[in-house]
Specification:
Strand 5, helix 3 and strand 6 form a beta-alpha-beta unit. The radius of gyration is 18 Å and the shape is globular. The protein has 303 residues and is an alpha/beta fold. Helix 4 packs across helix 5 (158-174). It is built from eleven helices and eight strands.
């Protein structure tokens, strides 16, 4: 039996890499893996520990390789998250669990849903991107110019992208508010309101600082993995999956979630017509209720 109150904060993968882990909420509660965004870390935004405790939830997050306190795994693919999650779950004594990912973390949650059907109970993908090779999807349509520029640069000149990302990461390490300022021009009024909330802003800044505290390579490897073949077919997912997305999102356009939801057999799609990207932070507590208890999600009527 594992001592739930003294869960390890580091886990070692079979290849020797260290993975930094963080648990919050009820140590004996029903487990949910939370996959952070890009760039991000295990300390990314989540409900308060007391909220989680009162709802019998044990939230487990870890730094993807190259972020925060986790060692880099060069050339990693989205599907490689399955191995790391298995290692973390085994170390924590967790057999069955739900998964939820936001933004760049969502495809990693979907990978676990696809390849661990005997362990994953339900999955949620909030404001996700679709695979770069998604048939029939105009991948760049509806994206903010800054996102299009970055992803096109990554695809056509990966070394140039890397050379620009390194000083950008250095600047964010010194002043994580720089990242929010860089995004500001592309944010909707609603998103600006959300990220200016003191509590959320504090969590985001801590999250960004931890993400690039030691290196820019988690961010780089995430971007490479998202735009390369994912290594699994979302159509093979057999567990229930919730897709939550906003019609006004210019970082992960709504068409990406729609494309995935059409291909996942047991998908529930919730499109919020007034929401953009950061509204997913507000949705997370309700999504956790759906993951653990099947609680219906309130749907905003079309306007």
């Amino acid at each position: 039996m594992h001592d739930l109150a003294r869960a390890p904060d580091h886990v070692r993968a079979p290849d020797g890499r260290l993975l930094r882990v963080e648990c919050s909420g009820d140590p004996a509660g029903r487990p949910v893996f939370l996959f952070h965004g890009m760039p991000g870390s295990r300390v990314g935004p989540r409900p308060r520990p007391m909220f989680l405790y009162q709802r019998g939830t044990r939230l487990i997050s870890y730094d993807r390789p190259g972020y925060g306190g986790s060692d880099r795994r060069m050339g990693r693919r989205i599907v490689d998250a399955v191995e790391d999650v298995t290692v973390v779950a085994d170390a924590l004594g967790v057999d069955r669990f739900a998964v939820v990912g936001r933004s760049g973390g969502a495809p990693h949650a979907l990978a676990c849903a696809a390849l661990l059907p005997h362990r994953v109970t339900r999955a949620a993908a909030l404001v996700t991107l679709a695979p770069r090779d998604a048939a029939g999807l105009d991948w760049f349509a509806g994206m903010a110019p800054s996102n299009v520029r970055d992803f096109r640069s990554l695809l056509t000149d990966p070394q140039g992208f890397t050379d620009r990302l390194i000083p950008r990461s250095d600047a964010i390490r010194s002043d994580p508010a720089r990242l929010l300022e860089d995004l500001r021009a592309d944010l909707t009024d609603d998103d600006r309101l959300i990220v200016s909330d003191n509590g959320i802003r504090s969590m985001l800044l801590r999250n960004y600082h931890e993400a690039v505290r030691l290196s820019p390579y988690g961010w780089l490897d995430d971007a490479l993995a998202l735009t390369s073949p994912w290594g699994f077919d979302p159509g093979e997912i057999r567990v229930p999956v919730l897709f939550w997305f906003g019609a006004k999102d210019v970082f992960s356009p709504a068409a990406h979630s729609s494309w995935l939801a059409e291909r996942v057999p047991r998908a529930t799609a919730v499109l919020e017509p007034a929401a953009a990207h950061f509204a997913s932070l507000r949705a997370l507590p309700t999504v956790l209720g759906w993951l653990l208890k099947g609680t219906p999600l309130p749907m905003t009527p079309p306007v």
